[in-house]
Amino acid sequence: xxxxxLAALLPLTAFAADEQxxxxxxxxxxxxxxxxxxxxxxxxxxxxxxxxxSPFGTIxxxxxxxxxxxxxGEYSADDFYRAVAEGERRDGSKLYPAMPYTSYHLLKRExxxxxxxxxxxxxxxxxxxxxTDLSFPFNLRFGLSFWNMLYKxxxxxxxxxxxxxxxxxxxxxxEVLGHCGECHTPRNALGxxxxxxxxxxxxxxxxxxxxxxxxxxxxxxxxxxxxxxxLKYGISAQGSMFNEMYPVFHHSTQYLPQDDHQAMATxxxxxxxxxxxxxxxxxxxxLDESAQQGRQQYLNLCAGCHGAEGEGIPHVAVAMAGNTxxxxxxxxxxxxxxxxxxxxxxxxxxxxxxxxxxxxDTLDDTQMRDLLHYLRQTWGGLDAELSPQQVSQxxxxxGH
Amino acid sequence: xxxxxxxxIINSQAVGPVExxxxxxxxDFLHEHLNLTGSRLGCGQGVCHACVAILDRPDGTSEEVxxxxxxxxxxxxxxxxxxxxxxxxxxxxxxxxxxxIQQKFVDKFAFxxxxxxxxxxxAATVLVEKLQRQPVKRSELEGEIEDALGKHICRCxxxxxxxxxxxxxxxxxxxxxxx
Lengths: 400, 179
Description:
The complex is a heterodimer of chains A (400) and B (179).
Chain A: H1 2-31, H2 34-37, E1 51-54, E2 57-60, H3 77-86, H4 101-104, H5 109-120, E3 133-134, H6 143-151, H7 165-177, H8 181-184, E4 202-204, E5 207-209, H9 214-219, H10 224-233, E6 235-236, E7 239-240, H11 245-251, H12 258-269, H13 289-301, H14 303-306, H15 332-340, E8 345-346, E9 352-353, H16 365-379, H17 388-396
Antiparallel strand pairs in A: 1-2, 2-3, 4-5, 6-7, 8-9
Helix pairs in contact in A: 1-5, 3-5, 7-12, 10-12, 13-16, 16-17
Chain B: E1 3-10, E2 13-21, H1 26-33, E3 52-56, E4 62-66, E5 79-81, E6 88-89, E7 95-97, H2 100-107, H3 117-133, E8 136-137, H4 138-149, H5 160-172, E9 176-177
Parallel strand pairs in B: 1-5, 8-9
Antiparallel strand pairs in B: 1-2, 3-4, 3-5, 6-7
Helix pairs in contact in B: 2-5, 3-4, 3-5
């Protein structure tokens, strides 16, 4: 009798273990933000198709559902780990480094296996992945072995000695799973990450992925509590996620547990975080002449939603007072947002922001410069003048 | 309160020079200073488009501008049309003839409560004038109407009759090419 009960229970236990593994894999796949590149908007999750624009051409996220023909149905857990961590496909060819194996190479094997179990539990979708469209010589996959060897641009973790548990967990989430450095670290002319400038910020398709160094974050007004809030809700006193960070929030960070947000903030700002810099609003009569001119542009075009004194309107438009984007020294992102606008945004818990119109056809370069000066000087704590050349140059480097 | 002087042309009439607060929104200027109360304040956030006026550019083209989120000083030195400017008027200033869009909206019962109607009239007028400069193929007409009216919110009629009326006006004026 006892033997019978045991025999009956065993498969159930195995099933429960599988379920746990799959559930853990789902969480890890979100933390690693796989879906962002391996899906297109409105398409089936993980069925591939997102075009990733690079200076060298277009690379497409592949189908990673368990379809045997078009997906990873024929992959074993070993094959999957090799693809994720080493950038090597089942047939031995190299993956383009749009797949962030430069970060994932430190993925724990058990985490790779959990993600694999989760992906293999999904519905297979028979959808071919589009072909990459790269210019010569970047279209030659065999060159990648050489490229990988040449640059050795893989993420290296910092020693964990003396660091808190939260810091260590945060390092794994930020550097490996979240692969934040893939955008926030500059790349050289051949697309290799410049690890000596790790997390110091980089320009991608017209927008700046700002520096994530602790001192820089603090100078832009970040403290650990607000940074954790920003990751969880996509919005905080410092502003809202936009451009490439908006899908990161949508697909990934909003789903992580609170402990993970705190761990990421702890890692980024350190166990002893620098004090967040407060910037007091500067009165109009203290502004230079261009900024004073810019105030009228602000009142004409911005104040209706952002408030005459930069206070913002809840669920409509973020505040300018305290806004972190205003503190970036070259104002690239500020200018891009004013020119391009932002689509309507949805955040955690029914929070939302109205669409922001773009003003590229409304403001000439002088008016734009005046407006930037007003915003920078009033709420950004930035006195330095932008030259007319800087403004027209930034405007010509359009986003997407 | 800081003030600035401005002047503009509204519905072919010169307005100003007049000194008004530097943060006054255009819709408040229209309502409170000029008694042009036809432009409707709906959401006050630039979403519903009930408040739009037409800005006529020097190159002869026009665009809708949301007066609830645009400061009056943006219009300094510019030419603007509001809902009050479309119909023909007699010597007493009374409306004697609606413009084709207005008339078609009435004929087709395109609106019920009418709160959004001034915005729709302005949007459809901008569309008709654009197509007068550059007619479109029939196959492109629905897309043009959607682009022109799609941002306007109506809570009564379900949009169908507004779109149908706009389509009728465009076709009756011969602004569609075959194809």
